[in-house]
From TrEMBL, chain A:
Classification via CDD domains: BTB_POZ_KCND3 (cd18419)
Molecular-function GO term, any one: A-type (transient outward) potassium channel activity
Region (Disordered): 599-640
BP GO terms, sorted: action potential; potassium ion export across plasma membrane; protein homooligomerization
Protein location: Cell membrane; Cell projection, Dendrite
Protein name as annotated: Potassium voltage-gated channel subfamily D member 3
Organism per entry: Hippocampus comes (Tiger tail seahorse)
From TrEMBL, chain B:
Native species: Hippocampus comes (Tiger tail seahorse)
Keywords: Calcium, Cell membrane, Cytoplasm, Ion channel, Ion transport, Membrane, Metal-binding, Peroxisome, Phosphoprotein, Potassium, Potassium channel, Potassium transport, Repeat, Transport, Voltage-gated channel
Family matches, as PANTHER family: CALCIUM BINDING PROTEINS (PTHR23055), KV CHANNEL-INTERACTING PROTEIN 4 (PTHR23055:SF30)
Protein name listed in UniProt: Kv channel-interacting protein 4
Top-level lineage group: Eukaryota
Compartments where located: Cell membrane; Cytoplasm; Peroxisome
Amino acid sequence: MATGVAAWLPFARAAAIGWMPVASCPMPVAPRDHRRRQDELIILNVSGRRFQTWRTTLDRYPDTLLGSSEKDFFYNEETKEYFFDRDPDAFRSILNFYRTGKLHFPRHECISAYDEELTFFGIIPEIIGDCCYEEYKDRKRENLERLQDDQEENKDVKLPHMNFRQTMWRAFENPHTSTMALVFYYVTGFFIAISVITNVVETVPCGSTPTQKDMPCGERYTVAFFCMDTACVMIFTVEYLLRLFAAPSRYRFMRSVMSIIDVVAILPYYIGLVMTDNEDVSGAFVTLRVFRVFRIFKFSRHSQGLRILGYTLKSCASELGFLLFSLTMAIIIFATVMFYAEKGSSSSKFTSIPASFWYTIVTMTTLGYGDMVPKTIAGKIFGSICSLSGVLVIALPVPVIVSNFSRIYHQNQRADKRRAQKKARMARIHLAKSGSANAFLLSKRNGLLNELLELTGTNTGEQKLPKSACLLESQHHHLLHCLEKTTAHEFVDEQLYEQNYVEAVMQSFPAARRESVSSRDTATPTCCGRRSKRNTTLPIAALQPGVNQQGPLQELSAIHIQCADRPSRSTSRSKLNLKADDVGRLNCKGGRITTAIVSLPSPPALTTPDSDNLRGPPTRRPPLPSPGPSIQTTTSSANVVKVSAL
Amino acid sequence: MDTTRRVSTISARVDAAVSSVDSVEDELELSAVRHRPEGLGQLEAQTRFSRKELQILYRGFKNECPSGIVNEETFKDIYAQFFPQGDASTYAHFLFNAFDTDHNGSVSFEDFVMGLSILLRGTIQEKLKWAFNLYDINKDGYITKEEMLDIMKAIYDMMGKCTYPVLKEETPRQHVEVFFQKMDKNKDGVVTIDEFIDCCQNDENIMRSMHLFENVL
């Protein structure tokens, strides 16, 4: 609960009265508000500019400099104010954070100066509000990149030693890394060019021999062309195999577009080798040679622009599809009209509707070959309408596509950026939420300890744990505690929940645990009764490590704290009981059931100095899972460690 | 003092009522309404808070809602912040209806402070009456099992998924059964306000818990 809703906490607590009539169990006692003094104004003097605010405003965030006692170091006795020798402009946004709960990043600030201020005042930058977070991250990244660029220019690129395969892959991907890579790059480029030129020249008629008419060079100098082709294909094959060898993920490489192009480029040659001199398939063989033109696409490895073009065409696919569709519609309409209009005239070229397609396309794209022309008047009229509308139909979508293309291109870039940031943003929100939830779970354990010690109060008066972080937090936790009591269920963190869920499923089988399940399911009027039943059977279950005990399994259960006059139970748990018959015997504070976390596999014997008075050994504190970087981490986590270390 | 305040809100409402319901106009209406509460003295007379307490309350209220009124969305957001593990929106909806006594879709500072006055400084009777009003969703004077089930589900929703023991589907229903067994004396399937107040006054736990939040402010 790290925002300005701290002011609404009294309201939320008051509204909890709505749960009281339906509560299953009695409510825990509210934390006492020891400070009954009036709210006072404090003066913060930052390099001469005086800011004033209420003390409670600053107390909202107790783990920052201004919210904790750390600011006492800056207190000036004579002037009765807190003096900070920092930038007053940056301090404005920091103080606004306390006031509104949202941290903003002023655009005109330098990013590193701002970061320093935040660090000084103990505020983590991750809580910058959504409105300013993108800007902050952008600037930070720019700064980082600039620093990295500077560093890279200075040092030699002495990368950590990579193995041969990785070096090779790097050389293939980025030709500027070494001279060998550059040489390889140019050689393959040269051979691609040679191969393409060869394909082209092959078909040119070159010189006529006296024996036959003009024949293409390919048939005249068959051997020479064949040798050239072989050489190129050998180079391409070697290149492909090398890339395949060097690829970090061979499967992924084989699926990539470039490798498919490579394969398609060299395959016809091998197929041709296999199928030579077979008259039946020579026709097919000739067709295969068409695929050799794909070698030109190999240039896209060499040209960044080609790659971008390909990508943008892909991303414009829907617009292009729409253009195609509308054109098709118009063609069909006009072709039909022209066909029926020209049906009457004799010797008309418009023999069928598909035949009219050709006329429509040629007219609409304003080509006008003239091989098909309408002869009737109606045909001419419709033909002119066709050509006029053709201009519209073609000319209109093209600028739309062009602008779409540029918009999509930029949008894609922005969308990628936003997607990357969204994940970070979701993570932050989740972190804040789980931090708050974890803080509650943590404080439950701490709260238990406090009460444990408070109860045995008289004997261990000196050993008072400091109160948990702040009153606000304890009040919030009390509220959550009341909700738990209302519903007779407890909050639990995710791992525990999963483990318990599995356990609940597993527990239906072993007979020893059947009792616990049944006791859990019976709806007793008070949850207290339910708890006691469960406790008697759970120890049995506990001592039989069940199906899924890995590592420190933790289970929530009621903890029994016994006062001195009560004989200790053999179970490892103590209980603050509020059953009517026990009230007289226990001189504990009535009306409370507290819960704690008990670790099962470890034998529950831990002696603390205070436990001399407790007849039942208190449970061992399990190693606490570190709470996520919550905004309000309770400072008592350190104290808990202290106790358990005793 | 309050008449001047009311003029702006009333005229805005009249305009909205006369003109057709349009989402743009709704937005304009909400943003145009800047609510100023009645004077401090009047509020002090109507509620059981002291001047200082009203000041503190108003400062907090105005900080979160600079326009002076809370609409249901903001209310839900604020309430959800206190219950990070579950979904508090349904319960917040019922709470909102309980606070919004004049049913105009927004909670002003007066509504807020009246509600708080009952909850924090009221007599047991008044608190129980407030709770009854909360449970009685359609405000007809009777709590039926369906209404109670809705409320119970809303409360259990706030717990979220990760609970111990694992929340089952029929837990709210069972809880409602228990509640009705206790409260519905004449077994007619509804709980009236008298049955409710009687039964609560006879229950020690409930009585004790009613005093829990007395020193909240």
